[in-house]
Amino acid sequence: xxxxxxxxxxxxxxxxxxxxxxxxxxxxxxxxxxxxxxxxxxxxxxxxxxxxxxxxxxxxxxxxxxxxxxxxxxxxxxxxxxxxxxxxxxxxxxxxxxxxxxxxxxxxxxxxxxxxxxxxxxxxxxxxxxxxxxxxxxxxxxxxxxxxxxxxxxxxxxxxxxxxxxxxxxxxxxxxxxxxxxxxxxxxxxxxxxxxxxxxxxxxxxxxxxxxxxxxxxxxxxxxxxxxxxxxxxxxxxxxx
Length: 241
Hints:
Radius of gyration: 20 Å
Largest sheet: 2 strands, antiparallel
Low-confidence stretches: none
Strand order of the largest sheet: 1-2
Number of strands: 2
């Protein structure tokens, strides 16, 4: 346990935690969109259960270091590119995000006022928890591989992942509430999911898109939407007055 008093360990913990939180932005958007379909009480339960199980999955993945490292080893070659399990997971996760975002957009356009039948609420609740776990594992593949390279001690990686998960849970609450109060932002969030899904597919086939570009595009679009919301609120206040 001597490593606990090593300043370098704490520095790596801080760096790794910051990286996990930044990479978790995609996850927060996805979770916020998913739970927006549930009543407030069930949405909070879905967040807690889904992220708790996802945290367990991440810790198990960290414990299987040799297996994680093996995910980056070439599995097969196609179109002049060596595909590893990491690439297959990213492509599958990206395609799932594209499907999910497209499905949600179609549902919003075709049936904007439709509610889930009460008989399907339980099934929807469990499906959302399962989707949170699956997508978190997809998003965690790259971050865990990076964590293995940045930190030499498993407890440090586990601590960083746990802190990042807590931040994701706290962050998803206000974002979900904001999306619920401003329905137009849900369409923007779904567009973000399509952007993220496409970047995952591109990364899986060997075309890496720097995260900075994606986050800048998301920040710019969010800024524009914030201005639209402010203008809309001001017009409503003027009509009421």
